[in-house]
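RECORD TYPE: inverse folding
INPUT: structure tokens
STRUCTURE:
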């Protein structure tokens, strides 16, 4: 018997009850990371619509019809799939689209994880609504283990400031009140700038934040950075600190991807410490010669 309460609120406080007829369940998901999570919860057969950015898990997700993008949903096509539930996200989807859908779709589930721990509540909410409590509980346990592992890596190390670039033309980064920043902080990487007026601030080429960061990450999404951008920063801005590409899905996606993402960040932080130690050791060896 489930120990969950009969009603659980979503990210905006709207209560959701367990769907009474699982055989009639039809889920439209407009959040890529949550589409992946629904499959992990064993609900893949009930997902009837997704965005073009919902690309995991492969190849199973290919059978789910696309209804546009996260910011340009084809409302008519989505409604044609006759969903009982639509899952949306405050950051990823347009409020106007959600308001429109709320008039015609019985259940709109709003999500908004702000820190990796919030994924526990996300698993709980989805497990409750869609009668996947046991699978949700397993994911919550896996997340707790991954969180503990990531924090164990970061705890004994001195914090390191990082600049996490998400866009070019203009250059853009993240503020400290974002999910991505919270993910990076689990392993002791503190994002710059310390304070920002926007959650995704722009950075001019002469902004001091470029040089004050101890490490620079170029994310694979939403902008697809490559090695050529590292060379560009080296040649045009003459930056000397470590600059590297980082998998944006592992750092920014919610749900089940957060579990893999925390393990990824722990491994990355551990490896960078090892490489720094080796580099220091090589310098010492050269000086001793």
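DESIGNED SEQUENCE:
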């Amino acid at each position: 018997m489930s120990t969950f309460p009969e009603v659980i609120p979503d990210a905006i406080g709207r209560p959701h009850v367990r769907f009474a007829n699982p055989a009639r369940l039809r889920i439209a998901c407009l959040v890529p990371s949550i589409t992946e999570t629904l499959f992990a919860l064993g609900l893949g057969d009930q997902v009837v619509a997704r965005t073009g950015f919902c690309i995991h898990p492969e190849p199973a997700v290919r059978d789910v019809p696309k209804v546009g993008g996260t910011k340009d949903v084809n409302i008519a096509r989505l409604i044609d799939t006759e969903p009982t539930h639509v899952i949306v996200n405050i950051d990823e989807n347009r409020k106007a689209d959600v308001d429109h859908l709320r008039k015609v779709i019985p259940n709109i589930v709003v999500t908004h994880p702000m820190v990796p721990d919030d994924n526990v509540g996300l698993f709980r909410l989805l497990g409750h609504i869609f009668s996947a409590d046991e699978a949700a509980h397993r994911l919550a346990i896996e997340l707790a283990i991954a969180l503990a592992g990531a924090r164990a890596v970061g705890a004994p190390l001195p914090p390191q400031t990082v600049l996490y670039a998400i866009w070019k033309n203009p250059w853009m980064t993240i503020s400290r009140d974002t999910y991505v920043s919270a993910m990076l902080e689990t392993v002791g990487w503190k994002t710059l700038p310390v304070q920002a007026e926007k959650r995704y601030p722009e950075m001019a080429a002469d902004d001091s934040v470029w040089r004050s960061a101890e490490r620079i990450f170029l994310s694979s999404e939403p902008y697809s950075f490559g090695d050529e951008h590292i060379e560009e920063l080296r040649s045009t801005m003459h930056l000397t600190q470590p600059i590297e590409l980082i998998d944006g899905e592992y750092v920014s996606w919610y749900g089940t991807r957060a579990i893999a993402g925390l393990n990824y960040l722990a491994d990355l932080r551990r490896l960078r410490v090892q490489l720094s130690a080796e580099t220091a050791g090589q310098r010492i060896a050269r000086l001793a010669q």
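NOTES: Residues 256-288 form the longest helix (33 residues).
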